[in-house]
Protein: Methyltransferase domain-containing protein
Amino acid sequence: MTEPAFVTETRAAYDTVAGSYAEQLRDLLADSPWDRAMLGTFAELVGKSGPVGDLGCGPGRLTGYLASLGLDVFGVDLSPGMVEVARRTHPGLRFEVGSMAALDLGDGALAGVVAWYSLIHTPPAELPPVVAELARVLAPGGRLLTGFHVGDERRHLSHGYGHDISLDAYRLPPDFVAELCVAAGLVVEARLVREPQGSFEKAPQAYVLARKPA
Structure:
């Protein structure tokens, strides 16, 4: 089966920027109280109930943070370059190369899934089966937390993190993301939209937290 062009493009872009991306975003959570609040709430709700997948983990900055909150967490990313950085930075954690669209996990294997700005490179029309895959690997009572840029448009990036790249990124309406969760059989527990902070963010940001019914 031929790989979709957007998947190939995304992998190539993140392989290119892996090192500089990790360096520039390394301390971002320290300046993001809303991010820490949502991740902390997720961690408290999931607790010790089972393993958590940080899917689209990049260099593992959130994986490491969630581990510091006491979660049994591992990371999966499409980019081998990102996984290499993550393994080097967090040698005590597990990271694998893989796709959120076809996870090498059994049904109900996870107590939690974090998809942190990792749905944004998939065209919106292609997202329903991806979210359904995230729901599939959640155990009953498990939680999904996703973060994304708010909007309703595609942006093409030709330069990022000091490198020439070719990458599409989609801003998403919060209602649309919530509807994707509901269509996948999840119950939306919370959503938050906030204004951009600092010079790094160019649009409002949103979080959606959903639960798989027990």
About this structure: The two ends are 35 Å apart (CA to CA). Strands lie at 52-55, 73-77, 95-97, 110-116, 138-149, 153-160, 163-171, 187-194, 205-211. Residues 179 and 208 are 11 Å apart (CA to CA).
